[in-house]
Design brief:
With 186 residues, the chain is α+β, with helices and mostly antiparallel strands. The protein has 3 helices and 9 strands. The strands form 3 sheets. A 5-stranded antiparallel beta sheet has the order 2-3-4-7-8, sandwiched between helices. A two-stranded parallel ribbon has the order 1-9. Strands 5-6 form a two-stranded antiparallel ribbon. The model has no long low-confidence stretch (mean pLDDT 93).
Length: 186
């Protein structure tokens, strides 16, 4: 089922997510719905808070991703579920990349993020992993991980850029934006 995506101004996007307790049929259905919602909106990542769930859960898929300026450096992964993730190491070296977000439709800004990360997480079968990611995988994971901390990508841009887009962000909180997918503000 395709779910509405909460947009900037929704209170849940500012809250810290809570741990997922354990496997269940409901959780598996939610994960399937998250992938379906993400694909319908042409996204490459989606966190549970973006669909109104205060859970430490996000999904990522780079199956359709193709960008020669920022390649997928972890090709053995094409689709993954991250439950109760914890970034345990980040490289000092960073790189900028223009990011967007399904919860901030119509706005794209350069964000500096570590080039490499190591993350500990559970997959959808609750198997534990500790995996090193680079390139686009590292970037998308960090972006989605921020949602679990109550942050969106515009929290990481320069003060000047924030000032320049502040009127767009404020208008968004009042429902003045355009998205080709189902959205919700609450």
């Amino acid at each position: 089922m395709i779910l509405p995506i909460y947009v900037n101004g929704s209170e849940i996007l500012k809250q810290t997510a809570k741990p997922v307790e354990g496997p269940s049929a409901e959780l598996n259905k939610l994960i399937d719905d998250m992938f379906e919602t993400m694909f319908a909106a042409d996204g490459i990542g989606l966190a549970a808070p973006q669909i109104g769930k205060q859970m430490k859960l996000f999904v990522v898929s780079l199956e359709e991703y193709d960008n020669e300026d920022f390649p997928n450096d972890t090709p053995e992964f094409v689709r993954e579920t991250f439950i109760n993730p914890e970034i345990i190491e980040s490289s000092e070296e960073t790189c900028p990349f223009k990011e967007g977000c399904l919860s901030v439709p119509g706005i794209n800004e350069n964000v500096n993020r570590p080039k490499e990360i190591t993350i500990r997480y559970l997959d959808r079968d609750f198997n534990e992993h500790e995996t090193h990611f680079t390139g686009m995988w590292a970037r998308v994971i960090q972006h989605e991980y921020d949602h679990l901390l109550g942050r969106i990508f515009t929290d990481s841009i320069s003060t000047l850029r924030k000032q320049l887009i502040s009127s767009k962000l404020k208008a968004m909180t009042h429902g003045k934006y355009s998205a080709r997918y189902r959205t919700k503000i609450k």
